[in-house]
Structure formats: structure tokens, C-alpha cells
Amino acid sequence: MTENAPKVLIATEKPFSADAKDAVVKRLEDAGLRVEVLEKYPNEAALLSAIADAQAVIVRSDDINAGVLAAGKALKLVVRAGAGYDNVDCAAAKAKDIAVMNTPGQNSNAVAELAFGMMIYAARGGFDGKSGTELRGKTLGIHALGNVGMNVLRLAKGFEMEVSAFDPFVDAKVIEATGAKPVQSVEALYKSCQYVSLHIPNTPVTKSSIGEKLLMFMPKGGTLVNTARKEVIDEAGLLAAMKGRSDLQYLTDIGPSEPTEAALKTDFAKRFFMTPKKMGAQTEEANFNAGLAAANQIIGFLQRGERVYIVN
Ligand code: 3PG
Asked: What's the mean pLDDT when you consider all of the chain?
């Protein structure tokens, strides 16, 4: 590899596991690319400087705004090693002729497993030693049946849960074929399911779309599991529902804004759980899968002009 080889930046404020990162670096270097790794960077300035001469960048939930893209003077491709790319300003990238890709499906089992981890934790009273409940036989609503939703469905079958699903982009017949019961509306999903697992993306349409009205529909013991995005929650509505119903629970790996988090922890400590850091996709396996997929997509794009998984 020469010093003139195209540079790929791996910019992950929340790093991959060390082994996964090494494997990603090796894959890129074996293909003749130059690699710089920028992990746990303290501020945007570090990213702006590292991206300046990169032709491609691998990121996770890092904020790839118009300013960051403008700093990437040689940038041709941003690969979000993961599913949701709401952290990348896709329009600004398009305007600069920078392609944006994601790596769909690569971390979805990890996210689905965490959803069940949190459900069991809550069903067993936070492991407080008192008599809890089981997941078997309970109703589970999967709100959006993409890659993560499908993995949640697969695991729910093992737990012998009664699974319904709602997804406006998936035909009822297709949902039926998966083994989940299709419901006609989002309201019907929340009305019929004790557990609802959220897998909708953060878009202008879904933003703040889950709030008091839907939560108040839930049957006794209603439990919302959010491993999707904090932005899809109407936080005032969530607080109102938690106040209005002493049986509701909210479990998430992406904490709400600070005032809402403080209110939930103070007023509803037994019914609210959040992981200290966003960690649905934070497994060795998901890091390998998403990181290597990102590396392969970069090699394909830069060396063979492959454009699969471009989202802008
Ligand atoms: C995704 O959209 O793929 C997940 O939210 C994972 O995000 P992360 O890479 O920041 O853990």
C-alpha cells in the first residue's frame, strides 16, 4: 500500500470491539486502502480534521451533518455501519455527490436479543427476588417488521408468545406468512398487545408519533420496548401515560432527553429502565458483521463501482 492509496476513515465515537475493528482494518488494508481509526473522539473538531482527506468513512451513530460533509474535501462515500441513517444528512451528501450507504440486517439479531433481555428483566421485577411473570403466552406487538422486527418475531416464537405485527409497508398476507398476526392499524396493535417492541425508523412521519394516546390503549401491564430511536417518542405523552396508568412500563436502550429521563427515574423508577449507553447493536458479532459489511461495500464502491445499499 502506498501513501497515495485512498484513505478510509473509521470514525466511531462508540467503538467496535477491538477484534472487530482489527478485522475491518485488515480487510480494507488487504484491499490496498489506507486506514485511519478515530475512536471515542472528544469533539467534532477531531472528526473534521480526520475526515479532510478521506475518500470513504465508516460511522455508527456519529453525527454526520453538513459541516462534517463539507470538511470531507475528498469524500465520496459514507457508510453507516448499521441500519438507521438518520444521523447522516443525506440531502447535504447528495448535493456534494457523496453516496451514503447503510448495512441493513447486520446488527439486527443483537438488537432483538436486547429487546428480550429488557423484557425478561422487567417481567422479573428488575431481578428483585419477588415473584415475577413469564413471557410465555403473553401478547407481543411488533411495530414495524423489518430486519430487527423479524428477529424479534423469531425469538418470540421460542418464548411461545402470541405475536401480532403492524407495518404500513408490508402487506397483511406477507405478515401472515411470517407467522405473526397482521393487525390493520397501529391503534389495534397497541390495544391488543401487552408488550410492544418498536422498530420504526426516525423519519419526519414517525417523529414523536408514539405518545399518550397509543400507550393508554395498551392492556394491563402494558410495556413499551424501544430499541429503535428516542426521537419517535412523544416524551410529554410518555410522561402523561406513565402518570395516568400505574401499570405501564417503558424499557429502552436509548434514553430520552435529560429532563424526561430525570422525571422517569424520579417518579417511575420501578417501571422505567434504560441502559446507560445505546447498546442494542453493541455485540462482538454485530460489530464484526456491520463493520466487515461496511468495509466490503467501500471496497466494492471504490474499486468496482458497486452501488448497492446506497440510500441517498
Ligand atoms: C442501527 O441503526 O443500526 C442501530 O441503532 C445501531 O446503532 P449503533 O451503531 O450506534 O449502535
From this structure: 98
Ligand 1 proximal residues by C-beta, below 6 Å: 14, 60-61, 82-84, 107, 278, 280-282
Higher pLDDT, 194 or 4: 194
Ligand 1 centroid to Cα of residue 185, in Å, is 27
Cα(268) to centroid(ligand 1), Å: 27
- What's the CATH number of domain 108-274, 1.10.10.10, 3.40.190.290, 3.40.50.720, 3.40.30.10? 3.40.50.720
How do residues 123-145 score in pLDDT, each as one tens digit?
999 999 999 999 999 999 999 99
What's the rounded Cα separation, in Å, for the pair 250 and 225? Answer: 6
Say how many Å lie between the CA of residue 195 and the centre of ligand 1: 22
Residues near 162 by beta carbon (within 8 Å), at least 6 away in sequence: 137, 138, 139, 140, 181
Q: How many CB atoms lie within 10 A of CB 19?
A: 11
pTM of the model: 0.97
Closest Cα to atom 5 of ligand 1 = 84
Q: How far apart are CA 46 and CA 39, in angstroms?
A: 10
CB 80 within 8 A of CB 102: yes
Contact between residue 278 and residue 63 where contact means Cβ atoms under 8 Å apart: no
Cα gap 237→241, rounded to integer Å = 6
Domain ranges across the chain = 7-106+283-304, 108-274
Distance 287 CA to ligand 1 centre (A): 10
Do 7-106+283-304 and 108-274 agree at the fold level? yes
CA 18 to ligand 1 center in whole angstroms: 17
Rg for the chain (alpha carbons), in Å?
Answer: 21
Give the β-pairing of 7-12 and 99-102: unpaired
- Of 80, 114, 202, 278, the one to substitute when testing ligand 1's pocket (max ligand atoms within 8 A of C-beta) is 278
Q: So what CATH class is 7-106+283-304?
A: alpha beta
